[in-house]
Amino acid sequence: MNVGAVGTPAWQVVAAHAERLRAVHLRQLLADDPQRAQRFRRTLGPLLWDFSRQRIDQAALDALVALGEAAQLLHHFAPLFCGEPVNVSENRPALHTALRQQDDAPVYVEGEDVIPAIRREQAKMAELVARLHAGQWRGYSGFPMTDVVNLGVGGSDLGPQMAVQALEEFRHPDCNLRLHFVSNLDGRELLALLKDRLNPATTLFVVASKTFTTIDTLTNANTAREWLLRHVDGRFDEAAILRQHFIGISANPAAMSGWGIAPEHQLRFWEWVGGRYSLWSAIGFSVALWLGMDGFNELLAGAAAVDGHVRTAAVAENLPVLMALLEVWNHNFLGLHARAVLPYDGRLALLPRYLEQLEMESLGKSVTLDGQPLPVHSGPVVWGDTGPNAQHAFYQLLHQGTEAVMCEFIATVRGRSDVPVEEKTRALHHQRLNLANCLAQIEALAKGADSKDPHRRYPGNRPGNLLLFDALTPHTLGMLIALYEHKVYAQAMLLGINPFDQWGVELGKRIARELLNVLESADKVPQDAVTAALVEHIRQREAD
Ligand code: F6P
């Protein structure tokens, strides 16, 4: 099976359509085809995806579908789901789909079925969740836990934090815990929590790190441990404190044990789960704590529904695959190099950050699977914020800047479900105002507006996607995340790159380790002249 469609005849056909449409304004495309809204939309259960504001016509869409077929995009999903080592530079599978598989059909990694191990860890997770919900998990002095702090970064933080915030209204009635997320290594978040808001006797720390070597997370974990021990002041045995106040989640059990996590409080996942794809594993522990295991399973089931869709729907009907084709169209054929993610739903405020990692760590590559230079663009810059806030911040650039940006609007028809009766009318008004803004912006960006005054002119022609869910639930959130995961994979297969490694983050980590040594010993000087000058400046100021 060939990987990558760059430069193939089907790619050239798409290029010819881009040439044909380059000077055609979206306004024109919309006026020429009154059926656009019906033609360029797809549905999947409670999701409507409208892509009628993309700069395509039917012939261009057909050419993109033909490109997807020629690239055998659907066939590429089989090795992903079957556990083949699709992560070629690390010679590993990327089996996040097995974590949310709804039945027990075997999935083999090096001849071993991984499903029984997944079920074992899920059962262990359920048991820990149940103990915490029942108030049976006691701290060193015998009190039940009141606070749980997830210490993790990147994939070990962004997914759980985003999901807990998005699904706030689905808190399990037995979950009386406050959840906190700490990622930043500068200590600010953690020290502020430790100083005022946490009681050492009733705080449980969850050290979440696939590798269990990430200095950010281990430094925060060490700070938390010191804080606990200081408060206990020798009254209790250190091993007992660690057992009662720390859970570890990792693919590296030896490192968890080495740090002091009791084996019975270790939750495991595996090398074949990518960090940014790990929400579905034990890394989702905080989500399971918040929603309960049934709610967490609903999240998994939503993702599994998309897994089923992506494997079986024809290219022309396949949402993630079409999303990938359209992004490659915008990026490589129309020259739009950035995509703004704009949720019109405050519950999804952290989704842009989550997607920044998922998409840019996955697609930020410049060589093909076999190490050759990639001759085209890989992934665009992805960033965003909640739409209504961003309207008052960076939308000016979206409307009138010289850099055209792809815009992705995400909204729900219904707002929160837990609004008290007396506030329902106001809540509905807020929700309609929110939707009115969402619909207005996508229309304005597409059509633009003329004016005699050049300062008041809107060029328009900015392509937009709208993902409109009936409601935000654990199930639809699972769908949304899986849609993006599979979009990224389809994009990578189209371009012939590896979406599962991230070698680009290693160099900076190595230099930082060396520089920490330099900063901590006055006689060491960095090799780089500019860094040396900056270190000198820092030393002088520290001494002042
Ligand atoms: O540095 C990047 C990265 O490796 C991400 O891919 C990962 O999600 C994050 O760091 C955290 O890694 P870990 O879960 O191993 O601590």
TrEMBL record:
It is found in: Cytoplasm. Keywords: Cytoplasm, Gluconeogenesis, Glycolysis, Isomerase. Its EC number is 5.3.1.9. InterPro entries: G6P_Isomerase, G6P_Isomerase_C, Phosphoglucose_isomerase_CS, SIS_dom_sf, SIS_PGI_1, SIS_PGI_2. GO terms for biological process: gluconeogenesis; glucose 6-phosphate metabolic process; glycolytic process. It is an enzyme of class 5 (isomerase). Belongs to the GPI family. This is Glucose-6-phosphate isomerase. It comes from Sulfurivirga caldicuralii.
